[in-house]
Design brief:
This protein has 392 residues and is α+β, with helices and mostly antiparallel strands. It has 9 helices and 14 strands. The chain is rod-shaped, with a radius of gyration of 59 Å. Residues 246-280 form a coiled coil.
């Protein structure tokens, strides 16, 4: 188990370092503080900021307890004069009385060592050493300090001071086992659990932990299950909200598609009616224009009746679709019929087809005369006569 923990420790240190270097911790701390201010005062204690560190210091035969970052003493007691650590049951009672307003789950104790008992050394290391900082410093322990790794408890923290290209500054903090072990043994005898061993810096701590991993207390965290349950519930609610939102969007999209299809059908119907109206209007206009540009049969009959002499009569009068007119009949002087039709405004290009022959029965001349209807000039379309005439 310890081997696995040691193998994962560089990876955990790398993740922790990147997390602290990101802006997320500052943002989450600010956001959490703003949310807590919105709660009633009696509820704010339930949503504390997590670990509440208290600093324990030993000077001579006296122990003192302060809150991290504050100079006011919360409690103090003596070891006793018998050299055995005094009453082992008194110190936990004093701590409990001093920390009665602190939730046990959030309570953290750090043993602060005086700077005189700790060796601090600034190192310039290559950037590649960041991922295995503890191992690299362990190899350098003999050169950087007068002790071996087996003689000290040590920790390393990365510094923000500028360094040369390709390197960074780190601080080695070490204390001899002979100095720290008696203090830890005395606290264990008194029944005081310690979460960290650090160096005193004013009223606060340096920010390292010299406590051996095997001596770190195991704390029950009932809030963790609650937090996991709340996080799971939040994720489930988020997925539910997203699913409901997608369902509503899909329903709205389906409704819009149905409306679009309905409007498309109506639009097609309107387009069909518009096309039908245009076709009807075009047909009506075409017929009106054709009627206007076409010579009527009645006008042709009137023109022929007016032009032909009374001595001539027709047996057949025909007009085809191309405007070709056929006159078949008898007249006393058939040759003069061309002169009578010469100045006609409706009948033009008159000529005899075949020869003029006398009719022995009537004594008149039988003729067959062809002509064309004089159509008015139109733009692009070609006019034609309508209907076929018959004999008058």
């Amino acid at each position: 188990m310890s081997t696995a923990t040691q193998s994962l420790r560089p990876w955990a240190d790398r993740v922790r370092r990147r997390w602290r270097a990101s802006p997320l911790p500052v943002f989450l701390a600010w956001w959490g503080g703003e949310l807590r201010h919105l709660l009633p005062l009696r509820w704010r204690g339930w949503f504390g900021s997590g670990a509440d560190w208290h600093l324990l210091q030993h000077a001579g035969a006296q122990w003192t307890l302060r809150r991290s970052g504050q100079g006011e003493l919360l409690a103090s007691w003596d070891d006793g004069t018998d050299g055995t650590g005094g009453d082992a049951r008194a110190q936990p009672a004093v701590l409990d009385a001093a920390l009665r307003n602190v939730d046990r789950e959030d309570r953290r104790l750090a043993l602060l060592l005086p700077s005189a008992l700790v060796l601090r050394r600034t190192l310039a290391l290559p950037l590649a050493a960041r991922d295995n900082l503890l191992q690299v410093v362990a190899f350098e322990m003999d050169r950087q300090t007068p002790f071996t790794v087996a003689q000290v408890y040590y920790a390393v923290r990365e510094l923000a001071t500028p360094a040369t290209a390709g390197r960074f500054h780190a601080e080695l903090v070490a204390v001899t086992r002979g100095t720290l072990d008696p203090l830890l043994a005395r606290l264990r005898t008194q029944g005081v659990p310690i979460d960290a061993v650090d160096v005193a810096v004013g009223n606060d701590r340096l920010g390292v932990n010299l406590l051996p991993a095997e001596q770190m207390p195991r704390r029950a965290r009932p809030r963790r299950r609650l937090n996991l349950a709340l996080a799971t519930a939040c994720v489930a609610l988020l997925l539910l909200v997203l699913g409901e939102w997608l369902h509503n969007r899909q329903a709205a999209l389906t409704q819009m598609q149905a409306e679009v299809e309905s409007l498309r059908g109506e639009a097609q119907q309107v387009a069909s009616l518009r096309q039908q109206l245009q076709d009807n209007a075009g047909a009506a206009g075409f017929l009106a224009q054709r009627k206007k540009n076409t010579v009527s049969m009645l006008s042709l009959l009137q023109e022929a009746t007016t032009r032909l002499p009374d001595s001539a009569w027709l047996e057949r009068f025909s007009v085809d679709n191309t405007g070709q007119i056929g006159f078949q009949g008898q007249s006393q002087q058939a040759a003069k019929l061309l002169d009578t039709l010469k100045d006609s405004a409706l009948i033009t290009d008159a000529s005899f087809q075949g020869s003029i022959q006398p009719d022995p029965t009537t004594g008149k001349e039988r003729f067959y005369l062809t002509a064309r209807v004089n159509q008015p000039k139109v733009g692009k379309s070609t006019s034609a006569t309508t209907g076929i005439g018959g004999a008058p």
